[in-house]
Amino acid sequence: MRRTFELYVDSDAESARIRAEHLGQLMRLTPSLMAANLVAGGLVWLAVGRAGGLLLAGWLGLLLLLLAMGIAGWWTQRGRVRDTASSKSYRRGSWHAALLGLCWGLAAALWFVPAAPAERVLIATLVTGMLGAGAFALAMLPVASLAYTWLIVAGSLVALWRSGEPILLAVAVLLLSYASVVSLAAMALARQSTALLRARFSYARQQQVVSLLLRDFEENASDALWEADAAGRLVHRSARLASLLGTTEERLGDVKLPQWFAARSQQSGPLLAAWALGRPFRDIKLQLGRGEQARWWALSAKPIAAADGTGGGWRGVIADITEAQRFENQLRMHAEQDALTGLANRRNLMNAAQAAMSLGRSGWLLSIDLDHFKGINDSSGHSTGDEVLRVVAGRLLALVEEGDLVGRLGGDEFAMLRLGESPSRAPQAMAALIIDKLSQPIEMGAKRLHVGASVGLARLDPSVANVEDLMVNADLALYDAKRSGRGRSVVYASSLGAASRRMNTVEQALREGLEKRQFELHFQPKVDSQSLQALGVEALMRWEHPVLGSVSPGEFIPAAERCGLIHELGALALQQACLAARELPGLNVAVNVSPLQLMEPGFIDSVERVLVRAGVGPSLLHLEVTESLMLEDAQAALRRLHALRELGVQVALDDFGTGFSSLAYLRAFPFHTLKIDRSFVRSLTEHADARAIVNTIVRMAGVLGMRTVAEGIETERELAVIRAIRCDEVQGYLVARPMPLPKFKDWLAGRPLTGPVDDMDSRVLPWRLTQFSPPTTMFSAEP
């Protein structure tokens, strides 16, 4: 619809020209149209006769007035060629057409019914003919065509209705269908005509542009036209050609073009061959000179036949493509080289590995990933991060031997392809050296930055099907190195492939497990170390899969973090734990929170919503975080933890002593509780240094106003030592194993438990543990 009626509203110059064209076509048809209307009006007068009376006279007068207006408009415009026309003139034409349509509609409505059958046929034929002819004649003005058509249809429908004859109902239906088809066809014709005119004007503009460009080319071209005789001697001279060939315009006649190119370019072979065979050639690329002074030309030419049909010479063009070739060379270099570090990029490295595999060569691929690089980017800015990457690239290049290729795969990922036949360093030794060199501090002005590296090694041999598998193997080894604590190297083994497949299986089953509610919280009590009175409970997620069986949290939680489901899993744990807290009055409930979950923008608000819905006080909710939270973005983590404390939620630092926490972190972060890792607890009864460490942690926490919880208490001797050190709370299998909520309630009530609890019965109750007393001499709180 917009394209059909656009000329009635568009005010641009092109639309004005199209309106002028359409009105011009209509103006040329005006005499014929007015004559046809005059003849048709006379036939109506003959058909109606005296029965028409004054009404017929008035109708004829209106028709003659409209015809006179049309002829007058044509007369004043005859011989004039209008370049533009306004939308107002378009609307004027539409009004004139509407009045004509109204006139013919009145004729049908007034005189069809009283007329005799023969006169009815005449009137119907006249009206139908005027409708069809007028609709198409006015098609260039779609509003005029529609108004003219449907005013006649309206009068005809009135006439058919007045007749009251049933058969004429079918005639009315036919009339409406014919009028609809005519109107649609007229609108399509208007669109097509307008589109053709727009295309014609666009072509004319393009022709003008081409003419201007050709004229500009002839005057200011950077290329040069040339013409040579059969011997190759130039016969066409121009200043531009002389400049390109490095000679004067007067001496161009001495230049033989084939010999000139043969002496100056090593790529002139195809040009000389085509010249000798007399075949036309196009865009033969030649390099003249070397280094910074090198120039590139593209030559095109075709032979000129002499009057007798023999070879008469050549005519062609020399195009200076130096800038384009330099840009192409840069693109090619960028396609194979990392722009930031100058190392080979991923594509270049993979091509080299693929070529080596195709030749049956052996070697190693070392996949290198920087540790804690994101922290440098976040704290010091991306420009500093870029400089660190350049320093890392330099250190890697300083280690290469013959046959090594170092590349940057993207971000903070690097790789070294080792294809040397007899390297001085074994692959594992090279990996250890890389880790050592990249662990050395980087001086950036006043800053002293530290990055580390993890390395995954994969062997390039016939057992590897393709380069993609080689990269996957190296990445699997790298992931295992990072999982093992970073700053390490791991050589790929088939067991890593099995672990990867298991990881993929777990990831694929996670979403289905969440949808089918296969996850359940188990609860493990935390008790006072002296009285063994239950103080709180830790909520631990368990997953029993119908096919995979019992999947451990150590497996499905990292998988959820990798595939982006940790937020849904964490939200489920938080909701279930808060609902359970309502059934455990007087006990706080601790929930583990992933760093990814905590750093989610809406996490604090979601915690508040869950507490409100569950009707649980914020002080009863303890969120446990690990030290890895502080490694990526310590400032953002600090803001989130303070927001939780302001909400009233307690925050515990889990697995304390196994990560990278410093006293500065403990002072800055609002921790309520430190949980001593079970690795220290296991060594309490055998190693004095472990007892000294735990004792120091407990005393330090007391100074900082924090409570301490000893995890993994499994024996009475461990409990005795913890009591002597005066750790606040204990948690472990000696007290109780994790269990579903109903069994935990039974445990609290002192009722015997039935059925398995985390694969073992938990039958040790707090009242039994009160019988234990710490030895007075064997275990001392002091080291």
Automatic annotation (TrEMBL):
Residues 361-494 form the GGDEF domain. The chain crosses the membrane at residues 26-48, 54-75, 95-114, 145-161, 167-190. Gene3D superfamilies: 3.30.70.270, EAL domain, PAS domain. Residues 282-333 form the PAC domain. Keywords: Membrane, Transmembrane, Transmembrane helix. The keyword Transmembrane helix applies. InterPro entries: Biofilm_reg_signaling, EAL_dom, EAL_sf, GGDEF_dom, Nucleotide_cyclase, PAS, PAS-assoc_C, PAS-like_dom_sf. It holds the Pfam family GGDEF. The keyword Transmembrane applies. Residues 503-752 form the EAL domain. SUPFAM superfamilies: EAL domain-like (SSF141868), Nucleotide cyclase (SSF55073), PYP-like sensor domain (PAS domain) (SSF55785). SMART domains: EAL, GGDEF. This is Bifunctional diguanylate cyclase/phosphodiesterase. The lineage of its organism: Bacteria, Pseudomonadati, Pseudomonadota, Betaproteobacteria, Burkholderiales.
